[in-house]
Design goal:
The complex is a heterodimer of chains A (110) and B (116). Chain A is mostly beta strands. Chain A has no helices and twelve strands. The chains are: A mainly beta (110), B mainly beta (116). At the A-B interface, strand 6, strand 10 and strand 11 of A face strand 5 of B.
Chain lengths: 110, 116
């Protein structure tokens, strides 16, 4: 069975600092991998996804993620965080259906 | 283009009642998926409808059902409500031609259901 682990429940970063959100997945082959963002009171928005090809994926809002097969990881990064990035971030894995991680809440301090 | 709309946005029911939630997809989208989000279980896939047919299903009891109309609007029904059904119910739409994994899903703001 596929599963996703987001080990950090809550992360606080200063505005302008870099960000890395961790995601580890469990699946026999290479699944579809996704990162979503959910702002308070909003639905989810897709940041980026990976299935094959270049292991460094560029997404919207300046985010990128790197797929590392050897580590079963798909970490999300952003070089400089803005206050508007404060939200909850979900990693997800999909083969026939999508399984979401438990989410990481990002707080941005000025 | 208008986004995905969900009605109602908030709902309070009591145990044993049933509830129907509605989702209108983005114009032209034929796939609608439903998700349940709770603090305890997180985000879980309920089911997907495409062209009025259920195409995929998650691991939820039969009390959770859905349907899709010819205009692609979808409804989700939960019968015999339990306290644990309190959640944010999200729907997402996509074109449906390639499947929800290959396509970008656009989410609505959700319906928050409280069961007392």
């Amino acid at each position: 069975a596929q599963s996703v682990t987001q080990p950090d429940i809550h992360i606080t970063v200063s505005e302008g600092a870099s960000l890395e959100l961790r995601c580890n997945y469990s699946y026999g082959a290479t699944p579809y991998l996704f990162w979503y963002v959910q702002s308070p009171g909003q639905g989810l928005q897709l940041l980026l996804k990976y299935f094959s090809g270049d292991t460094l994926v560029q997404g919207i809002k300046g985010f990128e993620a790197e797929f590392k097969r050897s580590q079963s990881s798909f970490n999300l990064r952003k070089p400089s965080v803005h206050w508007s990035d404060a939200a909850e971030y979900f990693c997800a894995v999909g083969s026939q259906k999508v399984t979401f991680g438990t989410g990481t809440k990002l707080q941005v301090i000025p | 283009k208008a986004g995905v709309t969900q009605t109602p946005r908030y709902l309070i029911k009591t145990r044993g009642q049933q509830v129907t939630l509605s989702c209108s997809p983005i114009s032209g989208h034929r796939s609608v998926s439903w998700y349940q989000q709770t603090p305890g279980q997180g985000l879980q896939f309920l089911f997907e409808y495409f062209s009025e047919t259920q195409r995929n299903k998650g691991n939820f009891p039969g009390r959770f059902s859905g349907r899709q109309f010819s205009n692609s609007r979808s409804e989700m029904n939960v019968s015999t409500l339990e306290l644990g059904d309190s959640a944010l119910y999200l729907c997402a739409s996509s074109s449906g031609l390639a499947g929800i994994l290959q396509e970008t899903q656009y989410f609505g703001p959700g319906t928050r259901l409280l069961v007392l």
